[in-house]
Amino acid sequence: MDEDAFVKIYGVAIKYSTCHGSIPTITQFPNIVPPSTGAYRLAGPQAWTSGFFAGLLWQWYSWSLDHPQLVPSTELETLARTWTIPLAVSAQKSSHDVGFLINNTFGADYELTGNEAALPTLIAAAENLLGRFSDRTGFTRSWDRMGPYQDPNKTFLVIIDNMMNLELLFHVSKITGKQEFAEAAINHARNVAQKQIRPDGSVWHLLVCDPHSDQILERTTWQGISDESTWSRGQAWGIYGFAAAYRWTGITLFQEKSIEMAEYFLSRLPKDGIPPWDFDAPEPAVKDTSAATIAASGMLYLISTARPDQPALRKYLLGAKELIHSTLAYARSKPSSFTEKNGHLQIHDLGFESILMHATPNLSQRPPEQIFDVGVVYADYYLIEALQRLERFCGGG
């Protein structure tokens, strides 16, 4: 956890705030940093990535409570909330992405500060996601439509990414005491474990389900190189998502699946320790540093749930540390230029605006746009989360 990472996050927050009088307003959110400009390409509040930057600010606020920063905690809290409030419109987004958008932001605000004003948006997002759960399929619908699957009455689409949004349901179930939120999340996770994870621990990205039964019509991919390949970020989502599901429920199946998926991920890493965008992509393969940081944070989440009789899980601490160290050595961006005097932080040059470079949002032939070798806000989010978790385990060493 170093000053430069903080300076980049703080500097981006200030740079992209639009002031009307004395009140800053946020209308666009950091998303992708192309190497040609080194500056964030912004996205609207309903883009699936738009909650991660406010989430980064909440992470820094939390960290600042015990680790003095260049900017006071009170200012970080205000800044994080400033970036959070405009996301309220996304609570009703017609997608599973409401977890990424709302739990990382309004959920963080409520947990860290006790701000009850965050609760209505948090609960509304969970109710929206619960409304996407189907008793017939046993899943929560991910996308309404995608590619050739344009009729929701004929296909029910489930992607592995959706495991990451279950925490919103578990979180709101705990807050409200309403078990239907947790029950939907448990049913979804059980069905993913049984129907979306291959026997070797790898994952299909996309399940195409019959919306009127529990039948799987197709196991395919939207973002992998082929239907039978393993998209590395999808594998990382699974590691993390099942670790989270185990943490909230104690259901052994979920811990077992997280372990299986972590074993597969580590076994497929190349010698340089940086995951390719798809584990089955031909060499030399384009890398995805976001897969590395998500997997590392997921493995640290996994071992945080280990019982005293499970010392073998400590191996994932080493795996996570190696992923983080390799990724930072490979992809850390040029430091910012700044000075600090009498408690005043002055940033002279942000440089490349994300902490990490060399992520791959999309490289499959199926999405309309191929984007690779860029900085992405979610790679930074899970990097900072992983570093904080690592600090709690072993002082960051």
Automatic annotation (TrEMBL):
<dbReference type="GO" id="GO:0000272">
    <property type="term" value="P:polysaccharide catabolic process"/>
</dbReference>
<dbReference type="InterPro" id="IPR008928">
    <property type="entry name" value="6-hairpin_glycosidase_sf"/>
</dbReference>
<keyword id="KW-0378">Hydrolase</keyword>
<protein>
    <recommendedName>
        <fullName>Unsaturated glucuronyl hydrolase</fullName>
    </recommendedName>
</protein>
<comment type="similarity">
    <text>Belongs to the glycosyl hydrolase 88 family.</text>
</comment>
<dbReference type="InterPro" id="IPR012341">
    <property type="entry name" value="6hp_glycosidase-like_sf"/>
</dbReference>
<dbReference type="GO" id="GO:0052757">
    <property type="term" value="F:chondroitin hydrolase activity"/>
</dbReference>
<dbReference type="InterPro" id="IPR052369">
    <property type="entry name" value="UG_Glycosaminoglycan_Hydrolase"/>
</dbReference>
